[in-house]
């Protein structure tokens, strides 16, 4: 079992109020690079910096790392357009950081990245793959991509109050600036990514198509961003079996109808509740309060833990251990103030 | 426990008769990229190509992968100047392929690579590191570097008959073209690498210095190329404890006095005999005949196996299993003819 993490960036994350994947917008650029290091090494190695939301909710990389320590799995990071250097080893798929989704072209190299990721996915020797993502601002590009494909699916948020009005305005602008009406790019997934997507979507869609075509069982490990990736696979006319594994936090989000999405894109759905309500630890309590919800393959990792011999209580203990090792209070305490979510 | 593999290239490998790390000189450019894939995934993924010597001796990556499957360890590849694309995830240390050692400057970026590798080594969270290499032609650049430092240490070869006369001529030319007399660069390891070394040496020397300085126990996993890396560390004035773990094939090489090297550079020496003489399998028999001897961290991996619960017989069985999975006969049978070694 291997978790492949597509770690990338989009300038869309720089829009005020759009993402909670970092204490500040400046720090957010480092989040995917450091998420990869946390899952790979157990802690950040290029900077003394732990990605936390403005309210102190730690990155879901902590959960995924905890599951890796508890049950063990292979882990491979793809550079899906990182904007900051990472000390984690990465596979190259010709991806560069995404532009602002409101630019006329958001992902100039979408086609090259899809092709390179498809080739890599087809070459991996594994019987089973989990595919996760880390890209701040990614739910907005996911929503824009779904709209371009003509798919009416809501998206989740890393913020407790989803800034849906803001996202809708940004997506409306993105489609207008790219000259795309909703549904215009149905059946043309590469062009949808190129105009209004992000390099993570290019990477995951390509990877899933390539891996599934070679007989690998592919589980998209994440929330609505991975639903958008699934939509892209289906709009490519690819009928392979696909699973989606996500957390109960995404499933409980009223903005999201996972069952409808699963039906629409023929996804085998697994939802895992890690029982964080039984813990007062900050690494878990903020999730119960509706923050973060998903990311860095968490839903897939938790599903793996659920079918392993490890108890969810042991996973929660391990989450505390990973978090405590990070010394979050010493080195990256929140910059103060609650998130306003918009 | 983590094995870090510095995978790089030098145009020195293109000199006729200098290396057996590939069936032909053209294929040799791919050897380090594919070695990394074999240890990472269990088989090549970017090309149906298994590095074998001209006589069919498979790459030592097969042994290292077998030990990884038998006893388990973390594995991280550093791009130490790869000339071909690899599907293995890599860490970036600003290394580029090395030039021909006979060029006036062999490694223009030696200083930058040493610095980046030192920083990476210092940041790794592990208590213990094994550091291995894969770079065809590397024993010649190692010999040139040792000569520039004024160290009188012989080097081994991947060929059964070490082409020592050829190497000596190439090294003489290399020093002359770089304007270096033997011993001129004692105490100036970065300059020695820049003039007559290779990017693997820059990477491993920097990594070892950075890791050891941060309290990590460092074992150089390999033969005389790793002895050259140790010499570079000592010529940087760094007194940290260092171990060298290599195979009995290197220890048995009459061109090499490992005990003298260990004394000279204050290395704690471990030699492991994997008992290949008890097997007729091609993946082991060619080693008994004196080919390959080392590489891709094999000596360190075997030392790890030796101190684990796994028996060496189980490791040998696993080597057969890894080799058989590669379908060497189907996809990369030797191009015919025995190696002439010079």
From TrEMBL, chains A, B:
Superkingdom: Archaea
Keyword terms, alphabetized: Glycosyltransferase, Transferase
GO molecular function: nicotinate-nucleotide-dimethylbenzimidazole phosphoribosyltransferase activity
Matching PANTHER family: PTHR38811, UPF0284 PROTEIN SLL1500
Family recorded in the similarity comment: Belongs to the UPF0284 family.
Protein name: UPF0284 protein GCM10009020_04810
Source organism: Natronoarchaeum mannanilyticum
């Amino acid at each position: 079992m291997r978790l492949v993490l597509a770690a990338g960036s989009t300038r869309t994350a720089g829009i005020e109020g759009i993402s909670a994947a970092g204490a500040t917008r400046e720090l957010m650029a480092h989040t995917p690079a450091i998420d990869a290091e946390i899952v790979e090494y157990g802690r950040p190695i290029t900077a003394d910096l732990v990605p936390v939301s403005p309210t102190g909710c730690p990155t879901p990389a902590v959960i995924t790392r905890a599951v890796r320590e508890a049950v063990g799995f292979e882990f491979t990071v793809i550079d899906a357009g990182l904007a900051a250097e990472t000390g984690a080893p990465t596979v190259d798929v010709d991806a560069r950081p995404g532009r602002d989704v409101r630019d006329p072209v958001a992902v100039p190299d979408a086609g090259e990245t899809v092709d390179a990721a498809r080739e890599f996915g087809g070459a991996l020797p594994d019987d089973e793959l989990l595919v996760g993502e880390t890209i701040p601002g990614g739910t907005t590009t996911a929503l824009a991509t779904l709209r371009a494909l003509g798919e009416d699916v809501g998206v989740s948020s890393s913020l407790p109050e989803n800034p849906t009005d803001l996202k809708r305005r940004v997506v409306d602008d993105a489609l207008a600036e790219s000259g795309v009406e909703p549904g215009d790019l149905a059946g043309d997934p590469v062009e949808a990514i190129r105009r209004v997507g992000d390099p993570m979507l290019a990477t995951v869609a390509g990877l899933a198509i390539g891996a599934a075509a070679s007989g690998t069982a592919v589980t998209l490990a994440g929330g609505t961003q991975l639903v958008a990736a699934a939509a892209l696979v289906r709009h490519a006319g690819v009928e392979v079996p696909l699973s989606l594994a996500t957390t109960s936090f995404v499933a409980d989000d009223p903005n999201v109808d996972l069952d409808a999405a699963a039906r629409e894109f023929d996804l085998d759905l697994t939802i895992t509740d890690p029982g964080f309500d039984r813990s007062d630890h900050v690494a878990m309590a903020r999730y119960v309060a509706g923050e973060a919800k998903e990311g860095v393959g968490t839903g897939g990792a938790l599903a793996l833990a659920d079918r392993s011999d490890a108890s969810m209580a042991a996973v929660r203990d391990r989450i505390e251990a990973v978090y405590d090792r990070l010394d979050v209070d010493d080195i990256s305490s929140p910059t103060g103030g609650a998130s306003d979510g918009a």
